[in-house]
Design goal:
mainly alpha; 2 strands; 39% helix
Length: 99
Amino acid sequence: MPRGYVRDLRVRWALEEAKLPYRVESVSFRDRKADHFAHQPFGQVPWLTDGDISIFESGAILLHLGERSDALMPRDPLLDPLRQEPRFPTIERELRFPS
């Protein structure tokens, strides 16, 4: 993975904060194969494979991880129907690195 040039660090950071198990695989950007494009149609990184699903775009990955972890998106029964919209920008803002 071309660390530092893509938004892979925010995904790794979220996984660490949530204490979710994960594995990082390096991808040769020059030799991207059909399997790479099957996970990420734009040929970029990161992507997350979780069971039978594959998610690309770091914001979508963060939302998925937030749904799996109270550490990232605490449960609030009163806000459950509205959980994703108001809190997603907070997760993304918190995981943004300074320029």
